[in-house]
Amino acid sequence: MNQEPNRRSRQRGMTFWGMAFNALVLGAVLVLVLRVVPSYMTYLSVKDIVERAANEFDPATDSLQDIRVRLGKLLNTNQVYDIKAEDIEVYRDKGMVVIDATYEVRFPLIWIIDGVMMFDQLVIKVPGRR
Question: CA-to-CA distance for 75 and 85, rounded, in angstroms?
Answer without folding.
Answer: 7
